[in-house]
Amino acid sequence: MFLFEVIKRTPFIVWGILALLITRGLNATKDGEISFAKMLIMPLAFIIWGLEKLLFHFQYLNIALICYVFTAGIGSFAGYVLYSRFRGIYKKEGVFYRTGSYLSLVIILVNFFIKYSLNVVLAIQPDLHRNLDFNIIYSVVCGFSVGLFLGGFYQVFVGCRRYEESRIREFKVEANKSRGA
After folding, report:
1. CA 84 to CA 81: how far, in whole Å?
2. Which among 5, 129, 142, 159 is placed 20 to 30 Å from 36, CA to CA?
3. Given CA atoms 153, 157, 158, 163 in this order, what sign does their dihedral have?
């Protein structure tokens, strides 16, 4: 009964956002052309979602922001490591692509449901906006989740740069071989 009531009271737009997130996550399971602008959509959405609560509703803003930034850094490192392991970068016909992976879908869904749950708790117990422990927990979760996306973005950026650098090295090696021959 409780779960049904929570779902019933959730604004329709939240379910629309979830559908959009699932679509983006499913698209990431297939190889796709890299668009840095499109890759920023997820981090920006989660940054706005998290910071809106912190900036306008939480009592311990300074502590919350410190926790948010610190765990965003940790999450960025974790995201970079995870995406480096499960997603590759390649170039075809002058365009960069990333290999498909279920990692993005998993990260998107876990982030959504954890943050959704935290916001449900806040809706049920609004006094938690003034609770230091909850301010810290919420900030840590939001910061880490944003960091995962930023780490994925950085992994693509580094992957593209490394790919280009390797091509330049190969070109120089070939040029040196042709001069020496």
Report:
1. 5
2. 142
3. positive
Tens-place pLDDT, residues 26-62: 999 999 999 888 888 878 888 888 888 889 999 999 9
Q: Please give the order of strands across the beta sheet that includes 89-92.
A: 32-33, 95-98, 89-92
Residue in the block written with tokens 């737009």: 13
Tokens standing for residue 65: 């922001």
Asked whether the beta carbons of 46 and 104 are under 8 A apart, the reply is no
Angle between helices 103-124 and 132-180 (to 10 degrees): 160
Give me the DSSP letters along 57-91.
H-S-HHHHHHHHHHHHHHHHHHHHHHHHHH--EEE
CA–CA distances in Å: residue 81 to residues 17, 55, 77, 84, 97: 27, 30, 6, 5, 19
- What one-character DSSP code corresponds to residue 128? G
Q: How deeply is 154 buried, as exposed, middle or buried, from its count of CB atoms within 10 A (0-12, 13-18, 19+)? A: middle
